[in-house]
Structure formats: C-alpha cells, structure tokens
Amino acid sequence: MNKKEHWENVFKTKPLNEVSWYEPIPETSLSLIKESNISKSAKIIDVGGGDSFLVDHLLKLGYTNITVLDISEAALDRAKQRLKDQSNKVKWIVADVADFSPLENYDFWHDRAAFHFLTDEQSINNYVETVKKYLNKNGNLVIGTFSKNGPRKCSGLDIKQYSETTMVNQFNTYFDKVNCIEIDHKTPFDTSQNFIFCWFKRK
C-alpha cells in the first residue's frame, strides 16, 4: 500500500473521533495564528489539514482566504461535508506535500500533521524549499511535530521526531525563529502525545 492509499484507507474506515490527532479545538494553532496579527484576508494554508477543525474555527473568526491541503481526498471530503455551504469559501487541494507545487504564495503556512511523516532527506529538503519559495517575505510558518518525547510512529507509519534545536537547524537558512513550545496533546484514547510547535518568520 503506497502513502496515498494508506491515508485514503484511514479516512474511509476510521471515524473522526477515533484517530489520535482528533482535536475539536486546535488551541495551540489558533493562539499562534491570532498572535501573528495577520489580517483576516491573509492567505493561510493548512498543510495536512485533512478533516481537522482548524478551518471551521478560522471561518468563524472571519478569515477569508483559507486553503486546506491533504494527500487524502476522503479526508477533505469529510471536512467539506461537515462545513456544508461554508466549504465553498475554502480552497481544497489533494496533494502530497513532499512534491507539492503551489499555484500561489501564502502569508501563513500551518502544519501540525504532515512534516513529521517526511523521513528521507530529499522529501524534507523539498518541503523546506517549497516553503521558502511560496511563503511571502515576513510570512509566518508554524509547524507542529512529534517531539523527542513523542511517539515514534503514527497511524502505523514511521515518523521523524524533532527538538527545538533540530527544528531550528532545519529552517534557519531562510527563517527566523519567533518561538518554540512543547505541548501535550490528549488523544481520544486518553493517552498523551508530546508535540513541539515552532513559529518562524520568513527572512
């Protein structure tokens, strides 16, 4: 089963509240977006957004230029069905971020789901180069990944763990660190997963 088939199968067979990343209110992401003071018309992309509730909250807060990208069409379809007519206000992209070629530039690039699944240097470098190229100058980059104290696998797949140091080293050629924080995400199974969220500004 390839990567895309794996994720299509996950989203076709597992209910929303039975996946470890289920988060009704993505508080950390929302607080960082609010703290960035971007305008309500800023171009925001949620990478690996799937059927996350981040888009619901951003729409309620009045943001008007939102894109959600995911490798799984089934995941995006679930989000569209949940949002009903509101889904027409969002751009939906089915793509693997490892070889994603955006058609526009963004002011805020958010990812709490995809980056730690990139485990080979080529995919990681492609990701960094894509963000460098398609995030506007002074644009915001927020990435949440599993920390060194987090899981080593997710959804049966290997992941790459990060510390503040390794995250900053990965991005510091083109980005300045604003802040990094560790948070514990409570899963629906009453377990805890440690994440590190790093917020950068494009140089």
Briefly note the structural class of the backbone.
alpha/beta
Number of individual domains: 1
CATH architectural designation: 3-Layer(aba) Sandwich
Radius of gyration: 16 Å
Using the coordinates above, name the CATH class.
Answer: Alpha Beta
Helix amount: 25-40%
Percent of residues in β-strands: 25-35%
Count of β-strands: 9
**Overall mean pLDDT score?**
91
CATH H-tier superfamily: Vaccinia Virus protein VP39
Structure, explained:
This protein is α/β, with parallel strands linked by helices. The protein has one domain (about 5-10, about 25-200): Rossmann fold. Helices cover about 30% and strands about 30% of the residues. It has 6 helices and 9 strands; from the N terminus they run H-H-E-H-E-H-E-E-H-E-E-E-H-E-E. Helix 3 links the parallel strand 1 and strand 2 (about 65-70). Helix 1 (about 5-15) runs parallel beside helix 4. The chain is globular, with a radius of gyration of 16 Å. The model has no long low-confidence stretch (mean pLDDT about 90).
Task: Please sum up the structure shown.
This protein has a single domain (3-8, 27-202), classed as Rossmann fold, CATH 3.40.50.150. 30% of the residues lie in helices and 29% in strands.
Helix and strand topology:
Layout (H helix, E strand, L loop, with lengths): L2 H11 L13 H9 L8 E4 L6 H7 L5 E5 L2 H11 L6 E5 L11 E6 L9 H14 E12 L6 E2 L2 E2 L5 H8 L3 E12 L5 E11 L1
Parallel strand pairs: 1-2, 1-4, 2-3, 4-5
Antiparallel strand pairs: 5-9, 6-7, 8-9
Helix pairs in contact: 1-4
